[in-house]
């Protein structure tokens, strides 16, 4: 075994764990190299004595280390001694603390025992006192109960006496006191005396109730009280007695008060029942206005007497008004229910409803203090006559009513020094009355809703007649941005007034039914607009119209429209007249005007109708109908212009192209097409919105240019000179079509865009490029035809080549040899052979058709 070198072990440092080293570093921070955890003695010696000459300083360095070690030993010795002394002192202090805690526990136990002894002593002392307290409380309760029982017995005796004397003032006070005293005996309901008193008081209450009802019955109607009591003194005494009786009724409770008010209202309105009830002299619907005048006259006659008799919290006038409304509603329901919708006098119905609404508004403002109904409508005076809202009397009544409401509010406030208990009771009674009473608004008017069918039918009839008259007149309104049929302006004006008329009366089911009639009106108007389209538009528009309208009138409209217009079978040779063109433009503008006005109308209806119906308001189907009418009219305009140019196109194959010798000016058919286009296009441009005009020349160009190629393909034996002439003609037509977006008449002051859209120029150039390519092939020498065909028409078929040879006048046997050379017999039909099946417009043009001009016309600003 190898022995360890003592010298090496002397320099080996003591290794501690990393945690210990870290804690020592935190506890005893030091900058000394010897204190570092990574200290290496060998490196330290080599660093301080790197060579032999440096060893001469080793003795002083060693002495210095010995001195340091001695100082450290001294410090360690002192610290160890101090630690031993501190440990001894801590042991002594701990023993002293334990002794002190033991003494403290002994004292606490002693105090706890003494406290328990004191508590037992106090309980012994207070036991007798508690018994005396309980006895005192029972004695006081007994004495109080006896006093209350004595007071109750006396009060019942006094009540019995005063009731027999009909002294209502004292009786009311006694009855109130008896009720309050009985509240203290709720726990003694099994005591014989209490049961006996209860029975006595109930009997007295029934007796008082009978007396009060008899007194009111003896007086009868307050309107004729002067006939029963001619003397003012006697009448005043009777009224005062009835006022005291009302105090008794208040003490008898709410059920008695409710019954008395009901009986009283019946007595006051008995004459009204005779006059306006079933079989009455004024029971007819036409006499409804007199009902409210009668009631106001009644209030004016008995109002001062009601104030004397009835307490203000009873709100007797309001209750009388509600009772009157209930009777009136029953009368009107019976009257209207006995008639069919055709038998009802609509004007009388509307007048009665309007009068009912005015009455409800005025009564609510007068009796309920409802500020929300105090609006800008007319009012009613005390005699039931209508007061204009702008009159001086109406303004006076408005401020008088506001002052009265302010006074009533101040009256209900608790004032310093007043009887707060009585005021609280009055406010509580008034609150109870308010909670029991229904609102007057709508009490009568809502009963008209089930019978407003006649009104809706009248509006439907008026709208249908208005449309018929407007269409027949064919007047054009040129006051707007674009000319439209004045019938459309009149239609929306009528509908706006109809909305106002209806919402003044009701905004519920009747208004919802009326807006359905508006939809039928729009559908009818769109059908009448469709009838103005030429006969050839039937196949275009009838499908869309049938999809939007499910009514049975569609078939008749389609039939009648087939016999209208200036472009029927009898006039197809002449095509589209200027007058008919203008009419079609009016149809487009009118349809656009209607489609743009309907969203505003939809918003107005949704805002004014009852919220329960607002989500069901939707005019999108009607908007789509007018868009369809505009689209169908646009197709008619395009087709009509094409018909005017058909004769010119048909002249192309009829020319003798075989013997054509010179290339000169454009042919007559080019001149005719140019004249027609320059005449009609500016008219269309002036009549239509820019977006519709763009849609027109897009559709017209996409449809007509292929027809030019079809006409050329019908030509036969076209020589090379004729081909050059055709190229010249096509070039002239190309220039004409490139100017379509900016064509104007010489006298026109049109200030629209003068730039031709780049996409339109590209489209026209491409379409005429196909025609020019065909003409170049036609003018190619026969020996170069196959090679030119392959170069100019790389995807061409044998049928395409055969069509070119037909135009050049090739014989059948020559065509076969050329087709053999081409080597493509039996292929599918070519593009030129299929030219008649080409689509009339590209996808971009179809999308363009979907964008309609936006002419602002807010419905509610008319």
Give the structure's gist in a few sentences.
The chain is mostly helical. It contains 31 helices and four strands. The strands form two sheets. Strands 1-2 form a two-stranded antiparallel ribbon. A two-stranded antiparallel sheet has the order 3-4.
Write up what this structure looks like.
By secondary structure, this protein is mainly alpha-helical. Among the domains are: 37 residues, no CATH class; 177 residues, Orthogonal Bundle (Tetracycline Repressor, domain 2); 187 residues, Orthogonal Bundle (Tetracycline Repressor, domain 2), CATH 1.10.357.70. It is built from 31 helices and four strands. Strands 1-2 form a two-stranded antiparallel ribbon. Strands 3-4 form a two-stranded antiparallel ribbon. Strand 1 and strand 2 form a beta hairpin. Helix 9 crosses helix 12, helix 16 packs antiparallel against helix 17 and helix 21 runs antiparallel to helix 23. The longest helix is centred in the first third of the chain and has 107 residues. The radius of gyration is 56 Å and the shape is flat. The protein starts with 5 loop residues before the first helix and ends in a 13-residue tail after the last helix. The relative contact order is 0.04. The C terminus is likely disordered. Keywords: Endosome, Golgi apparatus, Membrane. Its main location: membrane. Pfam families: VPS53_C, Vps53_N.
């Amino acid at each position: 075994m190898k022995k360890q070198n003592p010298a090496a072990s002397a320099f080996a440092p003591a290794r501690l764990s990393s945690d210990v080293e870290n804690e020592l570093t935190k506890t005893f921070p030091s900058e000394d190299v010897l204190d570092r955890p990574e200290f290496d003695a060998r490196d330290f010696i080599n660093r301080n004595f790197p060579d032999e000459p440096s060893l001469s300083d080793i003795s002083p360095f060693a002495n210095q280390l010995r001195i340091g070690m001695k100082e450290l030993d001294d410090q360690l010795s002192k610290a160890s001694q101090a630690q031993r002394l501190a440990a001894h002192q801590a042991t002594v202090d701990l023993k002293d603390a334990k002794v002190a805690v033991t003494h403290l526990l002994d004292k606490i136990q002693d105090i706890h025992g003494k406290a328990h002894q004191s508590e037992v002593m106090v309980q012994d002392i207070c036991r007798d006192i508690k018994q005396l307290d309980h006895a005192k409380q029972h004695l006081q309760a007994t004495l109080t109960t006896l006093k209350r029982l004595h007071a109750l017995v006396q009060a019942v005796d006094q009540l019995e006496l005063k009731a027999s004397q009909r002294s209502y003032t004292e009786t009311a006070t006694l009855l109130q006191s008896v009720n309050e005293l009985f509240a203290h005996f709720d726990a003694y309901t099994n005591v014989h005396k209490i049961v006996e008193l209860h029975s006595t008081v109930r009997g007295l209450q029934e007796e008082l109730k009978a007396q009060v009802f008899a007194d009111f019955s003896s007086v009868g109607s307050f309107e004729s009280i002067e006939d029963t009591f001619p003397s003012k003194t006697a009448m005043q005494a009777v009224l005062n007695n009835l006022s005291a009786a009302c105090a008794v009724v208040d003490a008898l409770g709410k059920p008695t008060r409710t019954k008395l008010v009901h009986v009283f209202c019946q007595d006051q309105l008995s004459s009204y029942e005779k006059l306006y009830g079933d079989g009455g002299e004024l029971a007819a619907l036409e006499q409804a206005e007199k009902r409210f005048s009668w009631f106001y006259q009644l209030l004016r006659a008995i109002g001062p007497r009601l104030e004397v008799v009835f307490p203000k919290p009873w709100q007797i006038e309001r209750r009388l008004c509600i009772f009157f409304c209930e009777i009136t509603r029953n009368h009107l329901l019976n009257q209207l229910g006995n008639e069919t919708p055709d038998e009802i006098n609509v004007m009388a119905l509307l007048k009665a409803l309007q009068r009912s609404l005015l009455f409800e508004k005025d009564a609510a403002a007068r009796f309920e203090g409802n500020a929300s109904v105090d609006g800008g409508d007319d009012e009613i005076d005390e005699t039931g006559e209508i007061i204009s809202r702008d009159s001086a009397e109406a303004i006076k009544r408005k401020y008088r009513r506001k002052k009265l409401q302010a006074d009533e509010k101040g009256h209900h406030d608790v004032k310093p020094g007043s009887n707060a208990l009585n005021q609280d009771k009055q406010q509580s009674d008034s609150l109870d009355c308010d909670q029991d009473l229904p609102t007057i608004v709508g009490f009568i008017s809502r009963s008209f809703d089930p019978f407003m069918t006649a009104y809706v039918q009248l509006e439907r009839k008026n709208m249908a007649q208005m449309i018929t008259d407007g269409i027949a007149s064919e007047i054009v309104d040129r006051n707007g941005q674009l000319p439209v049929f004045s019938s459309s302006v009149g239609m929306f004006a009528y509908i706006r007034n109809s909305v106002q008329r209806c919402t003044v009366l009701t905004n519920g089911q009747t208004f919802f039914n009326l807006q359905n009639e508006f939809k039928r009106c729009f559908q009818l108007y769109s059908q009448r607009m469709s009838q103005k389209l030429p006969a050839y538009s039937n196949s275009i528009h009838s499908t869309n119209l049938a999809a939007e309208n499910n009514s049975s009138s569609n078939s008749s409209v389609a039939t009648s429209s087939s016999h209208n217009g200036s472009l029927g079978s009898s006039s197809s040779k002449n095509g589209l007249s200027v007058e008919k063109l203008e009419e079609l433009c009016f149809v487009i503008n009118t349809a656009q005007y209607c489609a743009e006005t309907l969203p505003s109308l939809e918003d107005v209806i949704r805002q004014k109708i009852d919220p329960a119906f607002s989500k069901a308001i939707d005019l999108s189907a009607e908007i789509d109908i007018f868009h369809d009418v505009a689209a169908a009219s646009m197709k008619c305009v395009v087709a009509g212009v094409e018909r005017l140019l058909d004769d010119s196109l048909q002249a192309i194959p009829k020319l003798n192209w075989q013997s054509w010798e010179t290339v000169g000016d454009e042919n007559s058919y080019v001149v005719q097409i140019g004249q027609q286009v320059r005449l009609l296009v500016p008219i269309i441009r002036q009549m239509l919105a820019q977006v519709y005009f763009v849609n027109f020349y897009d559709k017209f160009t996409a449809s007509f240019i292929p027809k030019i190629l079809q006409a050329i393909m019908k030509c036969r034996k076209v020589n090379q000179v004729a081909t050059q002439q055709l190229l010249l003609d096509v070039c002239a037509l190309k220039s004409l079509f490139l100017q379509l977006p900016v064509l104007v008449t010489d006298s026109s002051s049109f200030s629209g865009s003068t730039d031709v859209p780049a996409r339109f120029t590209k489209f026209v150039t491409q379409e005429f490029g196909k025609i020019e390519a065909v003409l170049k092939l036609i003018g190619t020498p026969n020996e170069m035809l196959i090679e030119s065909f392959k170069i100019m028409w790389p995807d061409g078929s044998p049928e395409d080549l055969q069509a070119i040879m037909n135009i050049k006048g090739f014989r059948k046997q020559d065509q076969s040899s050329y087709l053999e050379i081409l080597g493509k017999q039996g292929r599918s039909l070519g593009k030129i052979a299929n030219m008649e099946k080409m689509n009339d417009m590209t996808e971009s043009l179809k999308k363009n058709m979907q964008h309609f001009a936006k002419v602002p016309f807010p419905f509610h600003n008319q």
